[in-house]
TrEMBL record, chain A:
Any one GO CC term of the record: nucleus
Keyword Nucleus: yes
Protein family (similarity comment): Belongs to the eukaryotic RPB4 RNA polymerase subunit family.
Cellular compartment(s): Nucleus
Keywords per UniProt: Nucleus
SUPFAM superfamilies xrefs: HRDC-like
Name under which the protein is recorded: RNA polymerase Rpb4/RPC9 core domain-containing protein
Cited Pfam families: RNA_pol_Rpb4 (PF03874)
Species of the source: Dovyalis caffra
GO MF, one example: nucleotide binding
Lineage of the species this protein comes from: Eukaryota, Viridiplantae, Streptophyta, Embryophyta, Tracheophyta
UniProtKB/TrEMBL annotation, chain B:
Localisation: Nucleus
Keyword terms, alphabetized: DNA-directed RNA polymerase, Nucleus, Transcription
Name of the protein this chain belongs to: DNA-directed RNA polymerase subunit
Molecular function GO labels: single-stranded DNA binding; single-stranded RNA binding; translation initiation factor binding
Similarity field: Belongs to the eukaryotic RPB7/RPC8 RNA polymerase subunit family.
SUPFAM superfamilies: N-terminal, heterodimerisation domain of RBP7 (RpoE), Nucleic acid-binding proteins
GO cellular component: P-body; RNA polymerase II, core complex
S1 motif domain segment(s): 69-146
Domain RNA polymerase Rpb7-like N-terminal: 2-54
Transcription listed as a keyword: yes
Species whose genome carries this gene: Dovyalis caffra
Length: 138, 166
């Protein structure tokens, strides 16, 4: 891939395919994988034999790092974040890491502050507040 | 997707899908990363018979969940091994190495049963099973694996499950 050298998530350079693709947060992936795992469980007695190592590891990982366990909360997170004109990738990093302060959010996702995008500190602060509210009421 | 003629018949579609899952899930490519799970089949095209073998190739369009770490991305990972060169962490199927040059200077390596990196005042400790937040600064792609180099030497990076640090 010729773009390999230029790849930099901090500037949102992640390749065309991935900019267009839907990006999922850890908690969403956890829901999908768990659903799939349950389906497999119904089909055979020993589902761990059926799934690949990658699947198993991914499931463990997203379970461990899911900030929101409740499917409704997960939906709300996406809904709230999608009001702020974020790229898919930015939305997911924010949803995954749940930064608490504006500085932290900018450090995690530097691209939200670049090139005349409509995110001032106030907007970011409001967004983070909304996020922490979901967490509280989960 | 190549299929042996013995799979043809009424269950052709199911057979194609189950073979696709078996062959594709768990693989890894440099461009798309790890294919974790297939979530949907969009369409299965017309089969093409291969000359000489009888195998038939079907073009299949499908949706899947992939995991692809990007350079510059910040993510959370579990520490799996600590040694004096640095430490290894795992984020799902991906291995990440953080060299001791990329660990903050005030953290010292301590050997022993449970090798770890500790700050001089002992308040922060990185050892096996710690959860860390790190930034990926480089990726190397093998045929079957993606290997990353990470750093925790930046603002808001480092241990996250440590109660003293939370």
């Amino acid at each position: 891939m010729s773009g390999e050298e230029e790849e930099n998530a901090a500037e949102l350079k992640i390749g065309d395919e991935f900019l267009k693709a839907k990006c999922l947060m850890n908690c969403e992936v956890a829901l999908i994988l768990e659903h799939k795992y349950e389906q497999l469980q119904q089909m055979s007695d020993d589902p761990m034999n059926q799934v690949s190592q990658v699947f198993e590891k991914s499931l463990q990982y997203v379970k461990r790092f899911s900030r929101y366990k409740n499917p409704d909360a997960v939906r709300q997170v996406r809904e709230i974040l999608s009001r702020y004109q974020l790229a898919e990738f930015e939305l997911c990093v924010l949803g995954n890491l749940c930064p608490e302060t504006v500085e932290e959010a900018i450090a995690m996702v530097p691209s939200i502050k670049t090139k005349g995008r409509a995110h001032d500190d106030e907007a970011i602060d409001k967004m983070l507040n909304d996020l922490s509210l979901i967490k509280k009421f989960e | 997707m190549q299929l042996h003629p013995r799979f043809f018949g009424r269950n052709l579609r199911e057979n194609i899908v189950s073979k696709l899952m078996k062959d594709v899930e768990g693989t890894c490519s440099g461009r798309h990363g790890f294919v974790v799970a297939i979530t949907g089949i969009e369409n299965i095209g017309k089969g093409l018979i291969r000359d000489g073998t009888g195998f038939v190739t079907f073009p299949v369009k499908y949706q899947c969940v992939v995991f692809r770490p990007f350079k510059g991305e910040i993510l959370e990972a579990v520490v799996t091994m600590v040694n004096k060169m640095g430490f290894f962490a795992e984020a799902g199927p991906v291995q990440i190495f953080v060299s001791n040059h990329l660990i903050p200077d005030d953290m010292e390596f301590q050997s022993g049963d449970m090798p770890n990196y500790t700050t001089s005042d002992g308040s922060v400790k990185i050892q096996k099973d710690s959860e860390v937040r790190l930034k990926i600064i480089g990726t190397r792609v093998d045929a079957t694996e993606i290997f990353c180099i990470g750093t925790i030497k930046d603002d808001f990076l480092g241990v996250i499950n440590d109660p003293a640090n939370a």
